Amino acid sequence: MNRGPVIFLGTLLAFALSFFAFVLFPQVQVGRQPLAAVLGAPDGTTYPAELPGQARQGAMIYQANGCAACHSQQVRQTGVNFKVMLAEAGTNTAAVLTAVMDANPKLDEAAARALLQNTPATVLPGLSDKKVADAAQKALKNAGAKAEIKVEPTGPDIARAWGARRTVAADYLFDSPVQLGAQRVGPDLANVGLRYPDANWQLVHLYNPQIYAAKSPMPPYKFLFHLHKVEAGAQPSPDALTLPAEFAPPAGYEVIPTDDARALVAYLLSRKAVAPVFDAPLSVAQAATPATNAVAGGTNAASATNAVAP
Amino acid sequence: MNSDTKQPVNSPSATTPIWLVMVFAVLFYGGLVYLDHHSGGFEPQVYAPYHSLAELEAAQPVSGAPNPFLIGQAVYNKPTCVSCHQATGAGTPGQFPPLAGSEWIAEPQPGRVIRIVLNGLQGPIEVKGQNFNNVMVPWKDVLSDEEIAAVLTYVRQNKEWGNTAPAVTPEQVKAVREKIKGRSQPFTPAELKTISPAD
Fold first, then answer.
1. Domains, chain B, ordered by start
2. Cys-Cys with B189: which of A219, A291, B125, B131 at CB 3.0–4.6 Å?
3. Predicted interface score ipTM higher than 0.85
Protein backbone atom coordinates (compact mmCIF):
# COMPACT_ATOMS: atom_id res chain seq x y z
CA MET A 1 0.00 0.00 0.00
CA ASN A 2 2.17 2.76 -1.25
CA ARG A 3 -0.54 5.04 -2.58
CA GLY A 4 -2.31 5.88 0.68
CA PRO A 5 -3.02 9.56 -0.02
CA VAL A 6 -4.46 8.82 -3.46
CA ILE A 7 -6.76 6.09 -2.11
CA PHE A 8 -7.79 8.36 0.77
CA LEU A 9 -8.61 11.24 -1.54
CA GLY A 10 -10.48 8.96 -3.94
CA THR A 11 -12.59 7.51 -1.12
CA LEU A 12 -13.27 10.95 0.31
CA LEU A 13 -14.37 12.20 -3.09
CA ALA A 14 -16.71 9.24 -3.61
CA PHE A 15 -18.39 9.70 -0.24
CA ALA A 16 -18.54 13.48 -0.56
CA LEU A 17 -20.12 13.18 -3.99
CA SER A 18 -22.83 10.79 -2.80
CA PHE A 19 -23.47 12.98 0.26
CA PHE A 20 -23.98 16.02 -1.93
CA ALA A 21 -26.08 14.19 -4.50
CA PHE A 22 -28.30 12.14 -2.19
CA VAL A 23 -28.49 14.15 1.04
CA LEU A 24 -27.59 17.80 0.67
CA PHE A 25 -29.09 18.49 -2.77
CA PRO A 26 -32.49 16.83 -2.04
CA GLN A 27 -32.60 18.57 1.35
CA VAL A 28 -32.13 21.95 -0.30
CA GLN A 29 -34.71 21.10 -2.98
CA VAL A 30 -37.58 19.55 -1.02
CA GLY A 31 -36.56 19.91 2.63
CA ARG A 32 -37.70 23.51 2.85
CA GLN A 33 -40.82 23.35 0.72
CA PRO A 34 -43.47 25.95 1.41
CA LEU A 35 -47.04 24.77 1.85
CA ALA A 36 -48.55 23.66 -1.45
CA ALA A 37 -51.38 25.56 -3.13
CA VAL A 38 -54.54 23.53 -3.69
CA LEU A 39 -55.64 23.43 -7.33
CA GLY A 40 -59.12 24.73 -8.02
CA ALA A 41 -59.45 26.16 -4.52
CA PRO A 42 -59.62 29.88 -3.78
CA ASP A 43 -56.28 31.65 -3.60
CA GLY A 44 -54.50 31.21 -0.32
CA THR A 45 -55.83 27.72 0.36
CA THR A 46 -52.78 25.72 1.32
CA TYR A 47 -52.03 22.08 1.87
CA PRO A 48 -51.40 20.19 4.09
CA ALA A 49 -53.20 21.24 7.24
CA GLU A 50 -51.19 20.97 10.41
CA LEU A 51 -51.98 17.88 12.47
CA PRO A 52 -54.23 18.29 15.51
CA GLY A 53 -52.43 17.76 18.81
CA GLN A 54 -54.00 14.38 19.46
CA ALA A 55 -52.96 13.17 16.00
CA ARG A 56 -49.41 14.32 16.68
CA GLN A 57 -49.39 12.16 19.80
CA GLY A 58 -50.83 9.39 17.68
CA ALA A 59 -47.88 9.64 15.29
CA MET A 60 -45.66 8.72 18.23
CA ILE A 61 -47.88 5.74 19.10
CA TYR A 62 -47.72 4.72 15.44
CA GLN A 63 -43.95 4.94 15.65
CA ALA A 64 -43.65 3.19 19.02
CA ASN A 65 -45.73 0.21 17.89
CA GLY A 66 -43.81 -0.22 14.67
CA CYS A 67 -46.84 0.19 12.44
CA ALA A 68 -44.51 1.33 9.63
CA ALA A 69 -42.94 -2.14 9.61
CA CYS A 70 -46.05 -3.54 7.91
CA HIS A 71 -47.83 -0.47 6.53
CA SER A 72 -46.53 1.97 3.97
CA GLN A 73 -47.76 5.52 3.53
CA GLN A 74 -46.93 6.12 -0.10
CA VAL A 75 -49.22 5.82 -3.08
CA ARG A 76 -47.58 4.98 -6.39
CA GLN A 77 -48.76 6.30 -9.71
CA THR A 78 -47.56 4.91 -13.01
CA GLY A 79 -49.53 7.00 -15.46
CA VAL A 80 -52.14 9.62 -16.06
CA ASN A 81 -55.28 9.58 -18.19
CA PHE A 82 -56.99 12.52 -19.77
CA LYS A 83 -60.70 12.30 -20.38
CA VAL A 84 -62.64 14.77 -22.54
CA MET A 85 -66.03 15.47 -21.05
CA LEU A 86 -68.90 17.24 -22.73
CA ALA A 87 -70.36 19.43 -20.01
CA GLU A 88 -73.08 21.18 -21.96
CA ALA A 89 -74.07 20.54 -25.57
CA GLY A 90 -75.03 24.12 -26.31
CA THR A 91 -77.49 25.14 -29.01
CA ASN A 92 -75.70 24.28 -32.23
CA THR A 93 -76.49 20.56 -32.19
CA ALA A 94 -75.32 19.82 -35.72
CA ALA A 95 -71.88 21.38 -35.23
CA VAL A 96 -71.39 19.72 -31.83
CA LEU A 97 -72.44 16.39 -33.29
CA THR A 98 -69.80 16.70 -36.00
CA ALA A 99 -67.19 17.78 -33.45
CA VAL A 100 -67.99 14.82 -31.19
CA MET A 101 -67.77 12.36 -34.06
CA ASP A 102 -64.53 13.94 -35.30
CA ALA A 103 -63.04 13.73 -31.82
CA ASN A 104 -64.03 10.11 -31.31
CA PRO A 105 -64.42 8.29 -34.65
CA LYS A 106 -65.62 5.19 -32.82
CA LEU A 107 -68.94 6.90 -32.11
CA ASP A 108 -71.60 6.55 -34.78
CA GLU A 109 -74.27 9.18 -35.20
CA ALA A 110 -76.83 7.53 -32.95
CA ALA A 111 -74.30 7.10 -30.12
CA ALA A 112 -73.16 10.72 -30.52
CA ARG A 113 -76.76 11.93 -30.38
CA ALA A 114 -77.40 9.94 -27.23
CA LEU A 115 -74.24 11.43 -25.75
CA LEU A 116 -75.42 14.95 -26.46
CA GLN A 117 -78.66 14.25 -24.63
CA ASN A 118 -76.99 12.89 -21.50
CA THR A 119 -74.52 15.60 -20.57
CA PRO A 120 -72.16 15.58 -18.79
CA ALA A 121 -70.87 12.68 -20.85
CA THR A 122 -67.48 11.29 -21.76
CA VAL A 123 -66.51 11.99 -25.34
CA LEU A 124 -63.03 10.52 -25.24
CA PRO A 125 -61.96 8.27 -22.38
CA GLY A 126 -58.44 7.31 -21.30
CA LEU A 127 -56.15 9.48 -23.42
CA SER A 128 -52.47 9.42 -22.57
CA ASP A 129 -51.66 12.48 -24.66
CA LYS A 130 -52.91 15.80 -23.36
CA LYS A 131 -52.50 17.39 -26.80
CA VAL A 132 -55.17 15.11 -28.31
CA ALA A 133 -57.49 16.01 -25.46
CA ASP A 134 -56.75 19.72 -25.89
CA ALA A 135 -57.50 19.54 -29.61
CA ALA A 136 -60.80 17.74 -29.00
CA GLN A 137 -61.77 20.24 -26.32
CA LYS A 138 -60.98 23.14 -28.62
CA ALA A 139 -63.04 21.65 -31.46
CA LEU A 140 -66.01 21.13 -29.13
CA LYS A 141 -65.70 24.68 -27.80
CA ASN A 142 -65.60 26.08 -31.32
CA ALA A 143 -68.83 24.23 -32.03
CA GLY A 144 -70.44 26.09 -29.15
CA ALA A 145 -70.39 23.33 -26.53
CA LYS A 146 -68.86 23.37 -23.07
CA ALA A 147 -66.12 20.76 -22.75
CA GLU A 148 -63.66 20.02 -20.01
CA ILE A 149 -60.68 17.76 -19.58
CA LYS A 150 -60.49 15.48 -16.57
CA VAL A 151 -57.06 14.50 -15.26
CA GLU A 152 -57.13 11.00 -13.80
CA PRO A 153 -54.04 9.44 -12.25
CA THR A 154 -53.65 5.71 -12.86
CA GLY A 155 -51.57 2.97 -11.30
CA PRO A 156 -51.82 -0.20 -9.25
CA ASP A 157 -52.30 1.59 -5.93
CA ILE A 158 -54.91 3.90 -7.40
CA ALA A 159 -56.72 0.88 -8.84
CA ARG A 160 -56.80 -0.53 -5.30
CA ALA A 161 -58.48 2.71 -4.18
CA TRP A 162 -55.56 3.48 -1.87
CA GLY A 163 -55.45 7.05 -3.11
CA ALA A 164 -56.66 9.36 -5.84
CA ARG A 165 -53.17 10.42 -6.84
CA ARG A 166 -49.56 9.66 -6.01
CA THR A 167 -48.12 11.00 -2.78
CA VAL A 168 -45.63 13.85 -3.10
CA ALA A 169 -43.22 15.56 -0.72
CA ALA A 170 -45.87 18.11 0.29
CA ASP A 171 -48.01 15.34 1.83
CA TYR A 172 -45.37 14.76 4.51
CA LEU A 173 -44.57 18.37 5.41
CA PHE A 174 -45.80 18.01 8.98
CA ASP A 175 -44.61 14.44 9.52
CA SER A 176 -41.52 14.05 11.63
CA PRO A 177 -40.17 11.48 11.13
CA VAL A 178 -41.81 10.66 7.82
CA GLN A 179 -43.08 7.12 8.29
CA LEU A 180 -43.08 6.01 4.69
CA GLY A 181 -42.73 2.32 5.42
CA ALA A 182 -40.94 -0.13 3.18
CA GLN A 183 -43.12 -3.24 3.30
CA ARG A 184 -46.75 -3.87 2.66
CA VAL A 185 -47.77 -6.73 4.88
CA GLY A 186 -50.90 -4.67 5.41
CA PRO A 187 -52.52 -2.12 3.10
CA ASP A 188 -51.15 1.33 2.46
CA LEU A 189 -52.32 3.91 4.99
CA ALA A 190 -51.66 7.17 3.13
CA ASN A 191 -55.42 7.69 2.81
CA VAL A 192 -56.79 5.51 5.59
CA GLY A 193 -58.62 8.50 7.07
CA LEU A 194 -60.69 8.67 3.90
CA ARG A 195 -61.27 4.96 3.50
CA TYR A 196 -62.35 4.29 7.10
CA PRO A 197 -63.50 7.64 8.47
CA ASP A 198 -65.35 6.08 11.41
CA ALA A 199 -63.38 6.37 14.66
CA ASN A 200 -65.34 3.51 16.23
CA TRP A 201 -64.47 1.24 13.32
CA GLN A 202 -60.81 2.11 13.80
CA LEU A 203 -60.96 1.43 17.54
CA VAL A 204 -62.65 -1.95 17.15
CA HIS A 205 -60.21 -2.82 14.37
CA LEU A 206 -57.24 -2.01 16.60
CA TYR A 207 -58.75 -3.98 19.46
CA ASN A 208 -59.04 -7.05 17.27
CA PRO A 209 -58.57 -6.87 13.48
CA GLN A 210 -59.99 -10.38 13.12
CA ILE A 211 -63.43 -9.02 13.97
CA TYR A 212 -63.56 -7.43 10.52
CA ALA A 213 -61.34 -9.81 8.54
CA ALA A 214 -61.03 -13.32 9.94
CA LYS A 215 -57.76 -13.95 8.11
CA SER A 216 -56.12 -10.59 8.83
CA PRO A 217 -52.47 -11.14 9.80
CA MET A 218 -52.50 -7.97 11.90
CA PRO A 219 -51.97 -8.64 15.61
CA PRO A 220 -54.61 -7.35 18.03
CA TYR A 221 -53.52 -4.24 19.91
CA LYS A 222 -55.52 -5.06 22.99
CA PHE A 223 -52.96 -3.44 25.29
CA LEU A 224 -54.18 -0.08 23.96
CA PHE A 225 -57.49 -0.83 25.70
CA HIS A 226 -58.37 -1.71 29.23
CA LEU A 227 -60.93 -4.02 30.65
CA HIS A 228 -63.16 -2.16 33.03
CA LYS A 229 -65.52 -3.71 35.53
CA VAL A 230 -69.04 -2.30 35.42
CA GLU A 231 -70.10 -1.86 39.02
CA ALA A 232 -73.42 -3.40 39.89
CA GLY A 233 -76.21 -0.96 39.10
CA ALA A 234 -73.87 1.45 37.30
CA GLN A 235 -74.41 2.68 33.75
CA PRO A 236 -72.00 1.25 31.17
CA SER A 237 -69.51 3.83 29.93
CA PRO A 238 -70.42 5.66 26.71
CA ASP A 239 -66.81 5.10 25.60
CA ALA A 240 -67.08 1.31 25.75
CA LEU A 241 -66.50 -0.51 22.47
CA THR A 242 -69.44 -2.23 20.85
CA LEU A 243 -68.13 -5.71 20.09
CA PRO A 244 -69.80 -8.73 18.50
CA ALA A 245 -70.84 -11.39 21.01
CA GLU A 246 -68.00 -13.83 20.32
CA PHE A 247 -65.35 -11.12 20.88
CA ALA A 248 -67.11 -9.37 23.76
CA PRO A 249 -65.53 -9.26 27.22
CA PRO A 250 -67.01 -11.40 30.03
CA ALA A 251 -70.34 -10.28 31.43
CA GLY A 252 -70.00 -7.32 33.78
CA TYR A 253 -66.94 -5.96 32.00
CA GLU A 254 -66.48 -3.44 29.23
CA VAL A 255 -63.60 -2.53 26.93
CA ILE A 256 -62.48 1.12 27.17
CA PRO A 257 -59.93 2.63 24.77
CA THR A 258 -56.93 4.28 26.42
CA ASP A 259 -55.71 7.74 25.48
CA ASP A 260 -53.05 6.02 23.36
CA ALA A 261 -55.68 4.21 21.30
CA ARG A 262 -57.63 7.44 20.80
CA ALA A 263 -54.48 9.32 19.78
CA LEU A 264 -53.52 6.59 17.32
CA VAL A 265 -57.00 6.66 15.80
CA ALA A 266 -56.84 10.47 15.55
CA TYR A 267 -53.55 10.06 13.68
CA LEU A 268 -54.99 7.41 11.35
CA LEU A 269 -58.02 9.57 10.62
CA SER A 270 -55.69 12.46 9.74
CA ARG A 271 -54.09 10.44 6.93
CA LYS A 272 -55.61 12.05 3.85
CA ALA A 273 -53.21 12.67 0.96
CA VAL A 274 -55.83 13.71 -1.51
CA ALA A 275 -55.74 17.46 -2.15
CA PRO A 276 -54.96 18.23 -5.79
CA VAL A 277 -51.56 19.96 -5.90
CA PHE A 278 -49.30 21.08 -8.72
CA ASP A 279 -46.90 18.16 -8.27
CA ALA A 280 -49.65 15.55 -8.72
CA PRO A 281 -52.53 17.12 -10.64
CA LEU A 282 -55.96 15.55 -10.75
CA SER A 283 -59.49 16.71 -11.42
CA VAL A 284 -61.61 16.75 -8.31
CA ALA A 285 -65.07 15.33 -8.78
CA GLN A 286 -67.20 18.31 -9.60
CA ALA A 287 -70.71 18.77 -8.31
CA ALA A 288 -72.14 15.56 -9.67
CA THR A 289 -75.10 15.30 -12.02
CA PRO A 290 -78.42 16.18 -10.40
CA ALA A 291 -80.04 13.26 -12.23
CA THR A 292 -78.21 10.62 -10.21
CA ASN A 293 -78.01 12.58 -7.00
CA ALA A 294 -81.55 13.69 -6.34
CA VAL A 295 -82.08 11.11 -3.66
CA ALA A 296 -85.34 11.71 -1.89
CA GLY A 297 -85.23 11.26 1.85
CA GLY A 298 -82.18 11.00 4.06
CA THR A 299 -81.47 7.35 4.47
CA ASN A 300 -77.92 7.30 3.20
CA ALA A 301 -76.17 8.20 6.43
CA ALA A 302 -75.98 4.95 8.33
CA SER A 303 -74.95 2.93 5.31
CA ALA A 304 -72.19 5.32 4.38
CA THR A 305 -70.42 5.05 7.72
CA ASN A 306 -70.89 1.34 8.23
CA ALA A 307 -70.65 -0.09 4.74
CA VAL A 308 -66.86 -0.04 4.67
CA ALA A 309 -65.56 -3.47 3.84
CA PRO A 310 -62.78 -4.74 6.08
CA MET B 1 17.59 -15.70 -2.91
CA ASN B 2 16.16 -14.00 0.14
CA SER B 3 16.92 -10.54 -1.14
CA ASP B 4 15.19 -11.42 -4.42
CA THR B 5 11.88 -12.36 -2.79
CA LYS B 6 11.78 -9.08 -0.85
CA GLN B 7 11.82 -7.08 -4.06
CA PRO B 8 8.38 -5.77 -5.07
CA VAL B 9 7.11 -7.67 -8.03
CA ASN B 10 6.79 -5.32 -10.90
CA SER B 11 4.35 -6.88 -13.27
CA PRO B 12 4.74 -5.77 -16.83
CA SER B 13 2.29 -2.96 -17.50
CA ALA B 14 -0.48 -4.54 -19.54
CA THR B 15 -2.77 -2.37 -21.62
CA THR B 16 -6.49 -2.40 -20.75
CA PRO B 17 -8.26 -4.49 -23.36
CA ILE B 18 -10.15 -2.31 -25.77
CA TRP B 19 -13.42 -4.31 -25.39
CA LEU B 20 -13.45 -3.54 -21.68
CA VAL B 21 -13.14 0.16 -22.41
CA MET B 22 -16.04 -0.16 -24.85
CA VAL B 23 -18.19 -2.01 -22.33
CA PHE B 24 -17.65 0.71 -19.74
CA ALA B 25 -18.31 3.42 -22.29
CA VAL B 26 -21.61 1.79 -23.25
CA LEU B 27 -22.60 1.31 -19.60
CA PHE B 28 -21.76 4.93 -18.82
CA TYR B 29 -23.75 6.14 -21.79
CA GLY B 30 -26.70 3.94 -20.82
CA GLY B 31 -26.55 5.36 -17.30
CA LEU B 32 -26.64 8.91 -18.57
CA VAL B 33 -29.57 8.20 -20.88
CA TYR B 34 -31.47 6.60 -17.98
CA LEU B 35 -30.71 9.58 -15.75
CA ASP B 36 -31.79 12.01 -18.43
CA HIS B 37 -35.06 10.16 -18.91
CA HIS B 38 -35.94 9.64 -15.26
CA SER B 39 -34.46 12.62 -13.43
CA GLY B 40 -37.28 14.98 -14.39
CA GLY B 41 -34.70 17.65 -15.15
CA PHE B 42 -33.76 17.59 -11.43
CA GLU B 43 -36.92 19.57 -10.70
CA PRO B 44 -38.19 18.88 -7.16
CA GLN B 45 -41.83 19.01 -8.30
CA VAL B 46 -41.57 16.49 -11.11
CA TYR B 47 -42.47 12.95 -10.11
CA ALA B 48 -43.20 9.85 -12.18
CA PRO B 49 -45.13 9.53 -14.50
CA TYR B 50 -44.08 13.01 -15.64
CA HIS B 51 -40.69 13.56 -17.25
CA SER B 52 -40.29 17.32 -17.24
CA LEU B 53 -41.72 20.46 -15.76
CA ALA B 54 -43.26 21.34 -19.13
CA GLU B 55 -45.08 18.02 -19.25
CA LEU B 56 -46.35 18.51 -15.70
CA GLU B 57 -47.54 22.02 -16.47
CA ALA B 58 -49.37 20.75 -19.55
CA ALA B 59 -51.14 18.13 -17.43
CA GLN B 60 -52.61 20.66 -14.99
CA PRO B 61 -56.40 20.78 -15.03
CA VAL B 62 -57.53 23.90 -16.85
CA SER B 63 -58.42 26.40 -14.17
CA GLY B 64 -61.93 27.38 -15.04
CA ALA B 65 -64.44 28.31 -12.41
CA PRO B 66 -63.11 27.39 -8.96
CA ASN B 67 -64.56 24.23 -7.47
CA PRO B 68 -67.53 25.19 -5.22
CA PHE B 69 -66.81 22.17 -3.01
CA LEU B 70 -63.32 23.42 -2.19
CA ILE B 71 -64.49 27.00 -1.70
CA GLY B 72 -67.16 25.65 0.63
CA GLN B 73 -64.58 23.71 2.56
CA ALA B 74 -62.57 26.89 3.05
CA VAL B 75 -65.69 28.77 4.23
CA TYR B 76 -66.67 25.94 6.57
CA ASN B 77 -63.25 25.97 8.23
CA LYS B 78 -62.90 29.76 8.30
CA PRO B 79 -63.95 29.07 11.13
CA THR B 80 -67.67 29.39 10.75
CA CYS B 81 -69.60 26.11 10.89
CA VAL B 82 -66.63 24.10 12.12
CA SER B 83 -66.72 25.68 15.61
CA CYS B 84 -69.96 23.90 16.49
CA HIS B 85 -70.56 21.21 13.87
CA GLN B 86 -66.91 20.03 13.96
CA ALA B 87 -64.56 19.22 11.09
CA THR B 88 -66.11 15.77 10.85
CA GLY B 89 -69.64 17.18 10.58
CA ALA B 90 -70.59 15.02 13.55
CA GLY B 91 -71.63 17.95 15.73
CA THR B 92 -71.34 17.81 19.51
CA PRO B 93 -73.59 15.22 21.18
CA GLY B 94 -76.33 16.88 23.19
CA GLN B 95 -75.37 20.39 22.08
CA PHE B 96 -74.99 20.85 18.34
CA PRO B 97 -76.67 18.54 15.82
CA PRO B 98 -74.64 16.58 13.25
CA LEU B 99 -74.53 17.58 9.58
CA ALA B 100 -73.17 14.21 8.49
CA GLY B 101 -76.11 12.07 7.47
CA SER B 102 -78.63 14.61 8.74
CA GLU B 103 -82.08 14.31 7.20
CA TRP B 104 -82.30 18.13 7.14
CA ILE B 105 -79.24 18.26 4.88
CA ALA B 106 -80.43 15.43 2.65
CA GLU B 107 -83.54 17.23 1.41
CA PRO B 108 -83.34 17.45 -2.39
CA GLN B 109 -84.49 21.07 -2.34
CA PRO B 110 -82.33 23.43 -0.27
CA GLY B 111 -85.00 25.98 0.79
CA ARG B 112 -84.93 25.08 4.48
CA VAL B 113 -81.16 24.78 4.92
CA ILE B 114 -80.62 28.11 3.17
CA ARG B 115 -83.05 29.74 5.63
CA ILE B 116 -81.25 28.13 8.57
CA VAL B 117 -77.87 29.47 7.44
CA LEU B 118 -79.22 32.93 6.60
CA ASN B 119 -81.22 33.69 9.71
CA GLY B 120 -80.06 31.10 12.20
CA LEU B 121 -82.12 28.61 14.16
CA GLN B 122 -83.65 28.47 17.59
CA GLY B 123 -85.76 25.92 19.41
CA PRO B 124 -86.01 22.16 19.81
CA ILE B 125 -84.96 20.16 16.76
CA GLU B 126 -84.70 16.43 16.13
CA VAL B 127 -81.78 15.24 13.97
CA LYS B 128 -81.04 11.58 13.35
CA GLY B 129 -83.29 10.60 16.25
CA GLN B 130 -81.51 12.90 18.73
CA ASN B 131 -83.07 15.95 20.29
CA PHE B 132 -81.23 19.25 20.43
CA ASN B 133 -82.26 22.62 21.78
CA ASN B 134 -79.75 25.33 21.15
CA VAL B 135 -79.20 28.53 19.19
CA MET B 136 -77.55 28.86 15.82
CA VAL B 137 -76.40 32.34 14.91
CA PRO B 138 -77.48 34.01 11.63
CA TRP B 139 -74.89 34.27 8.88
CA LYS B 140 -76.66 36.57 6.43
CA ASP B 141 -74.53 39.60 7.31
CA VAL B 142 -71.29 37.62 7.42
CA LEU B 143 -71.40 35.38 4.37
CA SER B 144 -72.20 36.30 0.77
CA ASP B 145 -74.63 34.38 -1.43
CA GLU B 146 -71.70 32.69 -3.15
CA GLU B 147 -70.15 31.67 0.16
CA ILE B 148 -73.40 30.28 1.55
CA ALA B 149 -74.02 28.34 -1.67
CA ALA B 150 -70.48 26.98 -1.58
CA VAL B 151 -70.57 25.95 2.07
CA LEU B 152 -73.96 24.28 1.64
CA THR B 153 -72.64 22.47 -1.44
CA TYR B 154 -69.66 21.32 0.61
CA VAL B 155 -71.90 20.02 3.38
CA ARG B 156 -74.52 18.47 1.10
CA GLN B 157 -72.09 16.77 -1.27
CA ASN B 158 -69.58 15.61 1.31
CA LYS B 159 -69.39 11.91 0.54
CA GLU B 160 -67.05 11.44 3.49
CA TRP B 161 -69.97 12.40 5.67
CA GLY B 162 -72.40 10.26 3.72
CA ASN B 163 -74.19 13.29 2.24
CA THR B 164 -75.16 13.15 -1.43
CA ALA B 165 -77.73 15.92 -1.82
CA PRO B 166 -77.59 18.18 -4.89
CA ALA B 167 -75.48 21.33 -4.99
CA VAL B 168 -76.78 24.76 -4.01
CA THR B 169 -76.35 27.70 -6.38
CA PRO B 170 -75.81 31.36 -5.41
CA GLU B 171 -79.04 32.16 -7.33
CA GLN B 172 -81.05 29.92 -4.99
CA VAL B 173 -79.55 31.64 -1.95
CA LYS B 174 -80.23 35.04 -3.45
CA ALA B 175 -83.87 34.15 -4.10
CA VAL B 176 -84.42 33.00 -0.51
CA ARG B 177 -82.59 36.05 0.84
CA GLU B 178 -85.00 38.27 -1.08
CA LYS B 179 -88.03 36.39 0.27
CA ILE B 180 -87.06 36.76 3.94
CA LYS B 181 -85.61 40.25 3.62
CA GLY B 182 -87.61 41.92 6.39
CA ARG B 183 -87.13 39.14 8.92
CA SER B 184 -84.56 39.50 11.67
CA GLN B 185 -85.35 36.76 14.19
CA PRO B 186 -84.10 33.20 13.69
CA PHE B 187 -86.30 30.41 12.38
CA THR B 188 -87.67 27.65 14.55
CA PRO B 189 -87.64 24.05 13.36
CA ALA B 190 -91.43 23.83 13.76
CA GLU B 191 -91.84 26.87 11.53
CA LEU B 192 -89.42 25.48 8.93
CA LYS B 193 -91.49 22.30 8.73
CA THR B 194 -94.39 24.41 7.46
CA ILE B 195 -92.28 25.91 4.65
CA SER B 196 -91.89 23.82 1.51
CA PRO B 197 -88.22 23.01 0.88
CA ALA B 198 -88.72 24.00 -2.74
CA ASP B 199 -89.85 27.50 -1.76
1. 16-60 (no CATH), 62-192 (1.10.760.10)
2. B125
3. no
